[in-house]
Amino acid sequence: MSDILANLQPDEPLEPGCYGREGVPGVTVKTVDLALASLIAGRNAVAPLSDAIKAGLGVPLPQGPQFAVAGGVALIGTGPGRWIVVAEEQSAKALLEHLETLAGSFGSATDQSDASILFEIAGPSVRDTLMKMLLIDIDPASFKPGSAATTQAALIGTTFWQIDDKPTYRFLVARSYAVAFVRALAVSAAEFGFELA
Amino acid sequence: MLIDCPYCGARDSHEFTYRGDATGTRPDPAAENAGEAFHDYVYLRDNPAGDHLGWWYHGAGCRQWLKVSRNTLTHAINAVRLARDEVKS
Amino acid sequence: MSRLAHGGLIDRSRPLAFKFAGKSYAGYAGDTLASALIANDVKIVGRSFKYHRPRGIMTAGSEEPNALVALRSGARHEPNTRATMVELFDGLEAFGQNAFPSLGFDAMAVNQLLSRFIGAGFYYKTFMWPKAFWELLYEPVVRNSAGIGIAGAEPDPDHYEKVTAYCDVLVIGAGAAGLTAALTAARAGARVIIADEDHLPGGRLNSENVVIGGHDGAQYAKAAIAELSSLPKVRVLTRTTVFGIYDDTYAAVERVGDHLAVPEAFKPRQKLWRIIPKRTILAAGAISQPIVFPGNDRPGVMLAQGLQTYINRYAVTPGQHVAFFASNDAAWTVAFEAAKAGIDVAAIIDPRPEIRADLAAEAKVRGLRTLLGAVVEQAHGSTLKAISVRGSQGTERIAVDALAVSGGHSPNIQLACHHRGRPDWNEVKGALLVSEPPPGMAIAGAAAGHFAISACVASGVETGTKAAVDCGYSVAKAPVLACSGHSADGSAFFHVKTQKGFAFVDLQTDVTVKDINIAVREGFRSVEHLKRYTALGMGADQGKLSNLNGLAILAEKTGRTIQDTGTTIYRPPYTSVSFGALVGHHRGKDFRPTRLTPTHFWAKKLGAKFTETGAWLRAQYFPKPGEIDWLQTVQREVKAVRSSAGMIDVSTFGKIDLQGPDVGQFLDRVYVNTFSTLPVGKARYGVMLREDGMVMDDGTTARLSDAQWVMTTTTVNAVKVFSHLEYCLQVLWPDLDVRMASISEQWAQIALAGPNARKILQKIADEPGRVENAALPVMGATQTSVMGGIKARIFRLSFSGELGYEVAVPARYGEKLAEALVAAGEQFGITPYGTEALAMMRIEKGHVSGPELNGQTTVTDIGLGKMASKKKDYIGRTLAERPGLVDENRLGFVGIMPVNKKNVVRAGIHLLPLGAPATVENDLGYISSATQSATLGHAVGVGFLKGGPKRIGERLRAFDPLRGGDFEVEICSPHFYDPQGDRVRV
After folding, report:
1. Fewer C-beta within 10 Å: chain B N or C terminus?
2. Counting one residue from A and one from B, how many pairs have CB atoms under 8 Å apart?
3. Out of B41, B59, B76, whose CB is closest to C719?
4. How far apart are the CA of A45 and the nearest CA of chain C, in angstroms?
5. Could you report the per-residue pLDDT of C141-199, keeping only the tens digit for each?
6. Which of A40, A179, A183 sits opposite C741 (nearest CB)?
């Protein structure tokens, strides 16, 4: 059992602070509270839906596992005809209404602002840490700013994307798994130093 | 074993669940021999030592059902298609 | 002491203290445990598996069969560790194994005297009579003598990690071929991972005297690793064994902290690497082969390649008077190196009739005695004292304390065969080689049969080039490195033909030539049968030093070629892997991640006890001080709900948002009952079948608006149902326009139940009128707000049988909702309850749940046959109508009451006719769920009985042999409490 977890029960959240190796933390984590919604295209309606979104938000819907942002709204492709929408400055209610209006009959939106916790993860050792949790390749040759993936991290489902080339990542994790996710992240990052905001 | 999901890219088989044979079509329940047809559809399977067509569900990823042609001897994957693309053709 | 005065790659300025078998010794940094034991003249390091013969160190690598020691004590105790692979550290403690009372004197050595009776397969012919002796005597004796080491009994205190890494080129082995291959690919810009099991990369370059490109081999290795480590796209893994190929993934274990007394803070003890390369180069080298002859297991008999490593790398010698018995030139080179180091070389014995002129000349110059066309007939001494040599002149005895043998080379091709491949016997090279490795793999260096250094290096460059080019990089032509080393000529020599003594083929499982004879005589002629019958190749070394000799001898005895005899299947792991590495972080409570409900911490503060439902922790019951057991608590909770009010978190149910024009039609096709007619603002209970007609799941689906519905599923089936619905939409009915999203996590949902539920709810609802009886009748659904503006969905549903509501709010407000309900309900004595009370109440009502939806029951079996529509097709309908599934004698859902109210009814009890013997033929059914009902004052059960509800009123026998119950019961309706459902409608 890693030293960090020696006394921590699986249902005890890790308190904010620094853990593991001392000095400049190799990995930093904070949570961001933003409005979220899922958007799903109707049958044969991906094209008109994308046009409507482009007209309304300024960016078309990504056609693959990518992350596109315009006007404070980010669109992340999670599957064919499915997206997660993240809004920096709108309330959950405003985002949902906005999407419903834009989508019309071409798609359906659902509020997901409480379904997930959004973690922003960065630091000089972030890739070495994430390699212990992910089964996919996040080497800069394969995963760049704008890349997104829906997969598992330490057996916990997640959708994540890369926002810059420091690199900084954003991970969406189901609320019920948030404590377990931080626990796995802390153990993986311990040898590099880990800071939870 | 890696499965090349058409949406997500190559992913470890841990992300998928395997349902089984993908060569059957759901019979017409109104047909006269529906009982027998459904019995064959649900229970009878070929078990080839070689290329096999099966349904895989990418539950930990894009949640798409995929039709995968895989060699049961070598585990080589010959082709992967989204179910929705299969139906279009 | 047998430490040589000069040389070696050890650090003589860093002495280390260690203990073996209770005695203290000293060594140096850079030693292995084996080299340090040799330096201290420790000859016996273990006792063999069956015959308990004294054994010494045979090799200097991971193919070591004899020097299996137990390392460390206490929680870190590790049995069966190869001393040759243990990096010496200060304070290391190791123990001998398989010997009592000591390695020096082992009482079990008496087994050798019984060898006639305990040859191959003896356990198929013994321990059979008398039958009673098996449990009393034979099994305990066999169990005690089985194995070599003893497993530790304490939990492993270290932690382990798993990592996934992708690359262009994976190079397995950092010897001459591996290093040149990696450099070639890395210089071309490829992502390279190079792995070596040693802490010091270089392979044989650190043990042999070779020159590469003008540099001493060890220097070349050092420079190559420095260059590789400096390149950002290259990862150098030392102390890392690639142990298997699993389809596209290569698995390796990195021994991060094995060489330290305690792992560094925050670092794992070992790390499992899952590597997915585009191309692989197997440059794992080759090991030398022993020769089979009587006494070939005596401590002091060693592989020539191992002796060379001990002299050159560790500056130790296992003996003062060493002879050489080999059929290849490489061993002559070792003899010359030994002589140069000042060791007395008693003789070089070579079965070949002729030898290269330059080797003969050098032997002469050094004054070394050579016997050509000769063999060692026997090794003498409990530790080696002398050998008998048979040559053209007759037999003579030579006094030696070490004998270096080499019958040829075995390329380490195991990994190349992990995809069911088999090697071919190459007569010219005298080696098993693989011609068709797995896709993407090339074999280089000695592993490909290139035993001379220049061929090794050339093959490294060639394979490295091809791999980089295949990955899309261009390789600049590099100047050819000039290399020099020993001659690689030789011929394979397997065994000395003689009838005398113990001639060991497999040292780890004590298999001798005589055992192969027995196997052949008894008809076990296939190499796979030979392995299982004799145990040859089944030890921890997996036959690295025995398989080839074994199959060569088998071939000879059955009159076949080696190629026709073939090899056994090669399987991972190449060397043993600890469970810790395979498991990584996911052990104990982290086996799988824990899911917490939105009110988890609120419940914890109230002292709830939790239970695991799948990955979830759910509150099971809320004990109050003074309550003596869970039953008392649960019965209190139930009484509180039925008399006033209670609340339970039901957030764990699957919740699915369904939108679009075709949802109603879709639901009609997946549920047995009709949903397309469901009005807005209503919920309906539905049952879903599998296509084979069995019930899969149940739940309620509500219609919030014309085109928006919300479905619930059971907790444990949430994922299964969602994937089933996806299958229906994507594969079966892609024409339906349905937009489906999981909202299980979006909403916290609390069930509020009891006669005062409405009063409590109205205190927190922003529009209390919306939940009046008429406004929200039974099965109604409404979207509103609570607690001053928090959006909420309220469903009037009851699982408990009392007036009930389920209140859903966005998950972040879950705790706030719980606290608000507690405050609002305080005057009514609102009671939080958990899964136990939930179960007790639903059994009292006769509702089916998980134990009844067990995959073997139809909708009729569970008493809900009337729900199934006859007007539409739905999943499972056709096969549900099979005669066998509608037979009236099927097990139908009933209630069970004990006649004597004091009897305890339990799930799992079987029902039999009164007075009938308890046999399978008389079995009438079973109890699926039971409870000690607080409401009824006695135990009741529900379950499945042949003939079902027709038998209400009958008395039967409840048979519970495992828990000691056997009593009379009466069959009744499963709806014990308020069968009319009046209390729900108030």
Report:
1. C
2. 39
3. B59
4. 10
5. 877 777 778 888 899 999 999 999 999 999 999 999 999 999 999 999 999 999 999 99
6. A40
* CA diameter of chain A: 55
Nearest-by-Cβ selection for A65 from B8, B12, B15: B8
For C202-220, the pLDDT digits (tens) are 999 999 999 998 899 999 9
Subunits next to C (3 or more Cβ pairs <8 Å) are A, B
Residue B55 to residue C730, Cβ atoms within 8 A: no
pLDDT of C135 higher than 90: no
CA distance B4 to chain C (A): 12
CA A168 to chain centre: 11
* Chain A nearest C-alpha distance from B6 (Å): 9
Give the integer Cα–Cα distance in Å for C388 and C395: 7
| Residue entry with tokens 């209970």 | C685
Q: Does B9 touch chain A (CB under 8 A)?
A: yes
**Strands C301-303, C402-406: pairing kind:** parallel
For tokens 């070949």, name the residue: C352
Per-residue pLDDT tens digits for C556-607: 999 999 999 999 999 999 988 999 999 999 998 899 999 999 999 999 999 9
* Sign of CA pseudo-dihedral C515, C518, C520, C523: negative
Q: Which of B7, B12, B14 sits opposite A79 (nearest CB)?
A: B7
CATH of C160-286+411-484, one of 3.90.226.10, 3.30.428.10, 3.50.50.60, 3.40.190.10: 3.50.50.60
**Count of B-C CB contacts under 8 Å:** 62
Global pTM? 0.94
> Looking at residues A95-119, what average pLDDT do you find?
97
Q: Do A191 and C266 touch (CB under 8 A)?
A: yes
Top pLDDT among C36 and B89 is at: C36
State the Cα–Cα distance between residues C107 and C99, nearest whole angstrom: 7
Q: Which chains, if any, share at least 3 CB pairs under 8 A with chain B?
A: A, C
Q: Bridge partners of C272?
A: C162, C253
Q: What is the mean pLDDT of residues C381-397?
A: 94
Quick check: A1 pLDDT over 50?
Answer: no
Show the CA angle centred on residue C693, arms to residues C688 and C694, nearest 5°: 70
Q: Give the pLDDT score at B88.
A: 53
Sign for the CA dihedral angle at B5, B8, B11, B13 comes to: negative
The Cα–Cα gap between C593 and A181 comes to 8
Residue type, C960: D
Query: Which residues of C fall within a CB distance of 8 Å from A125?
Result: none
Nearest to C752 by CA among C650, C851, C628: C650
Question: In this structure, what token pair is assigned to residue C543?
Answer: 């036959």
Q: Which amino acid is at C703?
A: R
| Predicted confidence (pLDDT) per residue in C33-62, tens digit | 999 999 999 999 999 988 889 999 999 999
> Domain segments of chain B: what residues?
2-24+34-86
ipTM for the predicted complex: 0.98
pLDDT of B62 over the 50 cut: yes
- Helical H runs in C558-652? 562-565, 579-583, 600-605, 630-643
* Among A58, A86, A111, residue at a domain's last position: A111
Query: Which amino acid is it at A86?
Result: V
**pLDDT of res. A70:** 85
Domain harbouring A149, CATH code: 3.30.1360.120
**Can you list the alpha helix ranges (DSSP code H) found in B1-89?**
34-43, 83-88
CATH number attached to the domain at C654-742: 3.30.70.1400
What fold characterizes domain B2-24+34-86?
A: Folate-binding fold (3.30.2270)
- Its sign, for the CA torsion C74, C79, C85, C88, is positive
3-state secondary structure C912-939: EECCCCCCHHHCCEEEEEEEECCCCCCE
